[in-house]
Automatic annotation (TrEMBL):
This is Sugar-binding transcriptional regulator. Keywords: DNA-binding, Transcription, Transcription regulation. GO terms for molecular function: carbohydrate binding; DNA binding. The keyword Endoplasmic reticulum does not apply. Residues 59-313 form the Sugar-binding domain. Belongs to the SorC transcriptional regulatory family. PANTHER family: SUGAR-BINDING TRANSCRIPTIONAL REGULATOR, TRANSCRIPTIONAL REGULATOR-RELATED.
Length: 315
């Protein structure tokens, strides 16, 4: 228990340090005590409740969400973009900006960067700032050619990101989903396709999106999924997809015939990549993101604030 004089000393030191902005060295000279003693007194002031430190910033809540998600799912890192009050379009853009910034700052020792497809990844590439990364090669992780929404396909995004980085890219000259398993097998034997798929398996870092095939599905909008497919996927418990590969609420891959027609990395191959960064936004993807996290397909998650909060409440 502090006596009156001890308490007065702690208040004096605390005022000089926190209110007047003095350094511990300046305070030690003024009151004739060593700097370690001043440091100890400042800690005592906090322990005694004389000083209470509050961090007042809009980022406090998002940082707390990041730490909770990292701990809950054993993630290497989580970035939660502050998005309260924004329109869905602005939410996507804000998350994409966070993703672009994160990737740009974490490319040390990355020689091969894999990229998936989708509207969020396309927005990320759009927001990526031009820089010199001539030593990096961009690899599409699945096929993507055709007439429907080519601007969100992996080949196009690999090309655009390579342009932003002043680097090079590979092209996977095949659709993401082909008409039959036989056609897929024939295409997979082609050397140009086989080489790029091998590159994809061995990238140092992969950037992926997470989709919900049953709600606001881009796959349905561009014609990859028909109503019959959706009914089957729903019956089989599918809640999400990564690179045209479907999984259930526990992250277990769904055994659907579509899997046998996809030209791209499998979920098991994705899991073996050293660093997989998922960039996702939207409450409609809540179950999809949770399933991806439970399946351990992701090392780094970049997400909007509302969805991050809901993940912690739901899971």
């Amino acid at each position: 228990m502090l006596n009156k004089e001890e308490k007065r000393q702690l208040v004096k030191v605390s005022n000089l340090y926190y209110i007047d902005g003095w350094t511990q060295t300046q305070i030690s000279k003024k009151i004739g005590a060593s700097r370690p003693i001043i440091s100890k007194q400042l800690n005592m002031a906090k322990e005694a409740g004389i000083v209470e430190v509050f961090i007042k910033d809009e980022c406090v809540h998002t940082v707390e969400l990041e730490q909770q998600l990292e701990k809950k799912y054993g993630l290497e890192e989580v970035v939660v973009a502050p998005t309260i009050g924004l329109t869905p379009e602005m939410v996507k853009r804000t998350v994409a900006q966070a993703g672009a910034h994160y990737i740009s700052k974490n490319l040390k020792n990355v020689k091969y960067l894999g990229i998936s497809w989708g509207t969020t990844i396309a927005e990320l590439v759009k927001e990526y700032s031009s820089e010199q990364r001539k030593d990096i090669k961009i690899i599409p992780l699945e096929g993507g050619i055709g007439r429907q929404r080519i601007e969100i396909h992996a080949n196009q995004l690999a090309y655009e990101l390579a342009q932003k980085m002043d680097s090079t890219c590979s092209y996977l000259y095949a659709p993401a989903i082909v008409e039959s398993e036989e056609l897929k097998d024939r295409l997979m034997e082609m050397s140009d396709i086989k080489i790029v798929l091998e590159e994809g398996k061995n990238v140092d870092m992969a950037v992926i999106g997470i989709g919900n095939p049953l709600k606001e599905s881009t796959l349905k909008k561009i014609g990859y999924l028909q109503n019959g497919d959706l009914d089957d996927l729903c019956a089989m418990g599918a809640v999400g997809d990564i690179g045209f590969r479907f999984f259930d609420k526990s992250g277990v891959p769904i055994r659907h015939p579509l899997n046998n027609k996809v030209i791209g990395l499998s979920l098991n191959q994705l899991k073996k990549i050293k660093k997989v960064i998922a960039v996702a936004d939207g409450i409609h993807k809540l179950e999809s993101i949770i399933g991806a996290l439970r399946g351990n397909y992701v090392n780094v998650l970049i997400i909007d604030e509302q969805t991050a909060s809901m993940i912690l409440k739901q899971s």
